[in-house]
Amino acid sequence: MPEIISKKFQEPPRTQMLNKLWQFQQERGYIDDDALKGLATEFGISEIEVEGVISFYHFFHRKPTGKYTIYLNNSIVSEIKGFQRIMEAFERETGATFGTVDRTGTFGLFLTPCIGLSDQEPAALINFYPFTNLNAIKVKDIISRLKQGVLPESICDAPSDNIRYVPAEDKSVFFRKYQTGQALGKMESLGPQGIIEEIKKSELAGRGGAFYPTWKKWEATRQQPASQKFVVCNADEGEPGTFKDRVLMNSYAGSMIGGMIICGYAIGATQGIIYLRGEYWWLKSKIEAALQEFRVIGFLGKNICDIKGFDFDIRIQMGAGSYVCGEETALLESLEGKRGEPRTKWYFPVERGYLQYPTVINNVETFCAAERIIEMGADAFRESGIPGSPGTKLISVSGDCKLPGIYEIEWGMTVAELLELCGAEDPYYIQVSGPSGECITVKEKFRRISMLDLLARKDIRCGGSFMIFNKQRDIVKILLNFSAFFKEESCGICTPCRAGNFIIQRKLERLQDGLFNEADLQELKSWGTLMKNTSRCGLGKTAANSLISAIDKFHDYFVARFDKDFNGLNLKFDMAAATADYEKYKS
Amino acid sequence: MANLVNIKIDGKNIQAPEGKNLMLVARENGIFIPSLCYYEHIEPPLGTCRTCTCKINGKYGPACTEKVHEGLTVEVDSAELIDTRKALVEMMFAEGNHICPACEKSGNCDLQHMGYELGIAVTRFPHLFKDRIIDYKPSRMVMEHNRCIKCKRCVEEVFTDDGKRVFNYMNRGNETFVGVDYIQEAKLSEAQAINAMKICPTGAIIVRGVSMTAPFGDREFDQQSTQQKKVLKKPTLNRPAITEKKIIATVSLAGCFGCHMSMLDIDTELLDVIELVSFDKSPLTDFKQFTTRCHIGLVEGGCCNSENVETLRKFREHCDILVALGECSVWGGLPSMRNSIPLSECLEEAYLNSVTNEPGGNIIPYHEDLPKILDRVYACNEIVKIDYYIPGCPPSANHIWKAVKNLLWGEEYSILYSEFKYD
After folding, report:
1. Is the ipTM above a cut-off of 0.85?
2. Which among A488, A527, A582 is the nearest to B373, CB-wise?
């Protein structure tokens, strides 16, 4: 067994940066100059460095955000479910416009990308409490009650889990009967090496979407000779259209915590951290309660499960609104109280992760699966799924279907079966794995969803998000929504991602205006490929994925929008639009 | 001393100490890999600009974040990779507002230098013309955000004596910029401030009162390419005897006529030119209309009003080949400085609120006979198809005539490094 340091490791003060900023943000509604100066002095850094951190996260503000801060989701699913009307309703009822606070300082309206409630859109967060299935009447009611002094927490919704499908015959991995600590009881008999062997046998792969073999991460970290190691749970579920981690944490938080403890035991760590996205503040107390329960039982703390010398505890770190922090190295930077800029691949987290110590970072679903695998045994886990891709996978289904929600599918289910299960309505364009994934047409519905080889183009991988769009939806609008999202969420430090997403958005706007032909389309595709090949992290590498696949698969759709008068020499130029500003001076 | 390992760059066997940065290894072996952010003593390397993208063991990746190890195979000079790197530098030009002729760092600028080395005459991307400020608040320096490429060098390299950062990234996404801490900046010594300016690969950090003293021609990147000398092909004159005169048309749209002046700078060669070509519609002949179809149209300046657009379209109609001549024509140039400002602000500033205007006594001209001013300045290739681009402000006379001779008679030529300029 690896050496375990029993002395509690002290994380440096700077790691408290985000917590301090949250404190000011919540107490004062914004981070004022005094707070900023105070933090700079406290951490011994320059003010610009504090300001750099604040400005990176979109839930931190340098101006007041109102007594009630409202974040309305502007992701694509929200858009097709009536975002525009809800936005207008909020503006009408509060008297504020989006991006500002009303004159009395009561309501602040802001937009935010996907808040993990795609199965109940349109949805908004008011003081970080969830309000789902909004309509104009509901908005009016909410605002008038807030005006009467009712607290948002007393009228917010409790988002339902919407678990729509679990595989038959007790094959469910995640939603089988759960008993706290059942898996933990097996730790000692298996031993660290045995646990890793079991995970290896299960072929569990990272469920955040990268599908990196989990056992390899654990084994590599275990091998590192270090005085301190960390287990980090990536609960920054930011990919638009995914909400499976929300459901797991809402109802099976113990499973996630158990998975982290098992990992901690296997690699020889004493400290775990759950990096929970700011959008999920409302889940925090639930997870805290679960952690407390674990402490009381003796599953967290000293000599866990009576394993002598195995001390382990977990804390929650709240994120503050940044998609890129779901990238593991950006997440580490954020944990250290810095801007969430992904690191280069100079070192891997298993070598130098959090605070330069070896770190395992896995997604919520991965830890839950790991815990369940230890509990049921890898052999039982391998009963479901298909060879090479055993087990089940949680899929968050949203968009144009009757039954949006969570589907625990066995790997190997076809797209057609899933569409059938969820009651898809006239599906036309299906976005798999979110904006950073790829789109498929209905013609491809007989492809299986699995982790198998991508090159065969037979199977399709799915990280969790599965968004269905019907024939009425405008593909260019969908792609524009995605490019606007990436443009804002790029961390901004590498050229192809920062500038590329901006450029692609501009080009798509021309497409929308009909100023486009085949050459432009191919150009757009080559620019997307450039971003894919040269970007620094996964965000930039995948940002153009849906664009590239859409150009290939929905080519006819684009052709129908081409500039038909294009003669190759004179380009289409909208003179009326270009001179509109000047025409105002016609007296 | 680290172990020596064997690696391969473009098929060439190289021995290098294990763990050494690939960028350095390439450099020491005379292999040119473009780079902007790489700064050898910052570790881990920054890896922000991505201009050193190569294929490393078959996968795309930047050379600057790669440690060499036994058996490493690197591909640098394939046509695809050369184009990829070129695209990345083009992207920086499209993203920022880089007006070389008006920049203090011109001639000593790494970004501009990379543009020269990679032969960028025009960017394939639309210029974004994002409104950015120039920050005059720092006491010792001026921060020109239009020129910053966010390489992170200053962020990681410039500290005060008590170890505090002077620069830090602000915001994120396309709003990212490098902010200056005014308090810390004031604590920098003159030498530290000048160092900040020096390590900036563009002209984003300018120290007050320090001038770039070298005259044109003597600046860092004026004369010599850093790439290994390529053998220049000797221009060969294997053309058929010229029997008919070729016809050229020229025009200056939203430009300053500087490019036309440059055309005249070939001095005595002008006499030969007159023998070989005739000019149709051109300020040189003062023909207002086209009288015949032309072989080449040389267009100076971009389009700032409706008349420019119409003229440019006429050129496209009447010319076999259209050449964008000079920065303004290529992407907008100096006139496009107004592109990040709303038209109304520009007009009101010029005609109503300027200090020389009498209050209430002026109007913004509008008449049906006057050309209509466009919302922004458009590059020529946004209006019509442009066949060739000649950069420069103005392009050097030799460059222009070499290009024209090549287009008209297929004469082989090579543009010298010292003739390819943006200023």
Report:
1. yes
2. A582
Looking at domain A391-470, which CATH architecture does it have? Roll (3.10)
B60: contact with A, CB 8 A cutoff: yes
Tell me the pLDDT tens digit for each residue of A201-220: 999 999 988 899 999 999 99
Work out the minimum CA distance from B16 to partner chain A, whole angstroms.
Answer: 18
CATH number belonging to the domain at B97-207, selected among 3.90.960.10, 3.30.70.20, 3.10.350.10, 3.40.50.720: 3.30.70.20
Residue A501 C-alpha, separation from nearest chain B C-alpha, in angstroms: 8
Question: B302 forms bridges with which residues in the sheet?
Answer: B254
Which residues pair with residue B9 across a beta bridge? B12, B74
Strands A405-410 and A385-386: unpaired
pLDDT value for B244? 77
pLDDT digits (tens, 9 = 90+) for A114-148: 999 999 999 999 999 999 999 999 999 999 999 99
pTM above 0.80, yes or no: yes
| A314 Cβ neighbours under 8 A, 6+ residues apart | A231, A257, A260, A261, A271, A272, A273, A274, A291, A300
Tokens describing residue A461: 């991988």
Reference A473, options A460, A462, A482; nearest CA is A482
B382 vs A500: CB contact, 8 Å cut-off?
no
From chain B, the residues in CB contact with A353 under 8 A are none
Residue B271 has a pLDDT of 86
Looking at the structure, give the CATH architecture of the domain made up of residues A68-160: 3-Layer(aba) Sandwich (3.40)
Q: Which CATH class is domain A475-559?
A: mainly alpha
User: Confidence class of residue B225 from pLDDT cuts 50, 70 and 90?
Assistant: confident
Any B CB within 8 A of A106 CB: no
> What is B246-338+368-419's CATH superfamily?
NADH:ubiquinone oxidoreductase-like, 20kDa subunit (3.40.50.700)
pLDDT digits (tens, 9 = 90+) for A415-446: 999 999 999 989 999 999 999 999 999 999 99
In this prediction, residue A3 carries a pLDDT of 43
Nearest to B61 by CA among A53, A38, B51: B51
